[in-house]
Amino acid sequence: MIVCLCHRVSDRDIRREAAAGCTSFDELQDELRVATSCGACHDCAREIFDAHAGPRCPAQQRRAQEAAALAA
């Protein structure tokens, strides 16, 4: 699915970057430019990234736990 319409970034693109070792959302934005224009995709892109990122910092773990709690 296309997550970022402005830069035509898909969920697969985000997962691929996370699997390749992208360790922060800021780095993801630098690589793909996702969530850097209108910002409408920011929350969705971050959720996808957080769910597929490698070793997580405490802030990423907390956001993932909060998102899981909201989804339940």
Distance between the termini: 23 Å
The computed structural class is mainly alpha
- What CATH architecture do you see? Orthogonal Bundle
The CATH top-level class label: Mainly Alpha
What is the string of SSEs from the N terminus onward? EEHHHH
The count of helical stretches stands at 4
Q: Uncertain spans, ≥5 residues at pLDDT below 50?
A: none
User: What is the strand content?
Assistant: 5-15%
Descriptive account of the structure:
This protein is mostly helical and 72 residues long. It has one domain: Arc Repressor Mutant, subunit A (Orthogonal Bundle), CATH 1.10.10.1100. Helices cover 58% and strands 7% of the residues. It contains four helices and two strands, in the order ββαααα. It has helices at residues 11-19, 25-32, 42-52, 58-71; strands at residues 2-4, 9-10. It has a two-stranded antiparallel sheet with strand order 1-2. β1 and β2 (9-10) form a beta hairpin. It starts with a strand and ends with a helix. The mean pLDDT is 89.
